[in-house]
Amino acid sequence: MSPIEILKQYLPLCWLKQNPLKLTRSMSFFKQNLLIYFIVEYFMQTNMTDDPFESFTEVTLQIFLTLMFISFILRINNMLYAFIEVTSSILVCANAVSFFIIPVLIWLTVNEDILSYYCLALLLIWEFIVMAYILKKTLAINSSASLALSALYYIITYLGAFSLGQILM
């Protein structure tokens, strides 16, 4: 199956319309999305910090923490067999939302219009809800638990990567 055909299966997750456990398992698709995720996050991080080495460190830590969080959650639920599908789902959705976030960040950087902040907030909420949806479908938990787990995910990956990056720098 081609990457485009697999992507067509994964994209409905962004609109809360698919089950990550029923998607095609593809290691090459996973690796491609991981690379795209790294590039996009590195671009956004470098835009915020202006230090390429610090950005590289933080994005590397963020990806490591993301992979560890997903594997831990799946491990405690005896679902480690679904790691590729679930991680690919999260990465595809994060990349799709980032496709919209990058122009908003550029807009925000150029003129700091209040509307750009609102758009950015809506996009971040969208990504948060999609993450909660993926966790809900994967772990078969209720909405409250998936929202809490999604919040924990963002705290561990983003705040954790930032904190570890500050310690290492």
What is the succession of H and E elements?
HHHHHH
Structural class: mainly alpha
Average pLDDT taken over every residue: 93
Continuous helix count: 6
Strand content: under 5%
Major pleated sheet: none
| Low-confidence segments | none
- Approximately how much helix is present in the residues? over 70%
- The radius of gyration computed from the alpha-carbon positions, rounded to a whole number of angstroms, is 16 Å
Q: Can you count the beta strands?
A: 0
Shape annotation:
globular
Give the CA-CA distance, first to last residue: 43 Å
Oligomer: single chain
Task: Note down, in words, how this protein is organized.
This protein is mostly helical. It is built from six helices and no strands. It has helices spanning 3-10, 27-49, 52-76, 83-111, 114-139, 143-168. Helix 2 (27-49) runs parallel beside helix 4 and helix 4 (83-111) packs antiparallel against helix 5. The protein is globular. The model has no long low-confidence stretch (mean pLDDT 93).
